[in-house]
């Protein structure tokens, strides 16, 4: 359009009309006379604007996508936390069940031997005692624990109390090289002394060098004077190997202990000794022997040897 007087006049007129429409729209509020025109324009141009916006505003779309992704990530994180909490609860339940089994076994031993025990939990292993095989339990002087008390669990002899604090105590384990306990053989009553050898079987020196001992025989504690540090009748272990006597004054045995010293959790301190020696009553039941099949072979002649020179055999089991 050429810049003429008429064009300038037309421009001024259009601007004036635009201002007039704006003024009318503002004063009209919700009843503005131009609402119909605005709605019509939105209907016509709205889809076009949306398409153009989607095409020219990838940054906005990316931000929205990241925001949604963050929400999904948060939900995933919450689910993972809930799953972890559930697994921890299940693990805790498994541990509780294991502890209940240990407690049941220990109470059974205490009942059979008539031991008065104080239950405790192992809270540390080898705490500040150098290379000694020791544990720390969460019971001490305030619970009636004293030095030189016998410690057991549901399997047998664990050790003896060596140090006592107000709320904790240290237990020297039966497999420690400085540990020694008097033992008695089941049935034969042969006496000896068992010493710890770390992660190897206990070494037992029988006082009778000619004692008849075989693999599988079992031992219990003999007991100490005034029942300290050991009460009688606590299961110690099973004979794994017997050294030849060789004319020695003593006989050496190697005994697999009943207790797994690397898996201790619930233990009991014997705070009251039995009124009488329980002897062998606390030992676990012996496993049922596996029957050995017997085979009887009968030679049945058939009058004449078979053509292949073999006999017929009947086998009974």
TrEMBL record:
This protein's record includes keyword DNA-binding: no
User: Is Mitochondrion a UniProt keyword of this protein?
Assistant: no
Arranged from A to Z, the UniProt key words for this protein are: Cell shape
* Rod shape-determining protein MreC beta-barrel core domain ranges (all copies): 130-270
Tell me where on the tree of life, at the top rank, the source sits. Answer: Bacteria
Q: Give a GO biological-process term.
A: regulation of cell shape
Q: List the residue ranges forming a coiled coil, or say none.
A: none
The protein's matches in Gene3D superfamilies, at most eight in alphabetical order, are given as: Rod shape-determining protein MreC, domain 1, Rod shape-determining protein MreC, domain 2
Enumerate composition-biased segments (Basic and acidic residues). 276-288
Where do the record's region annotations for Disordered lie? 276-317
> What is one term from the GO cellular component aspect held by the record?
plasma membrane
Annotated family: Belongs to the MreC family.
Function comment: Involved in formation and maintenance of cell shape.
Q: What's the protein called, per UniProt?
A: Cell shape-determining protein MreC
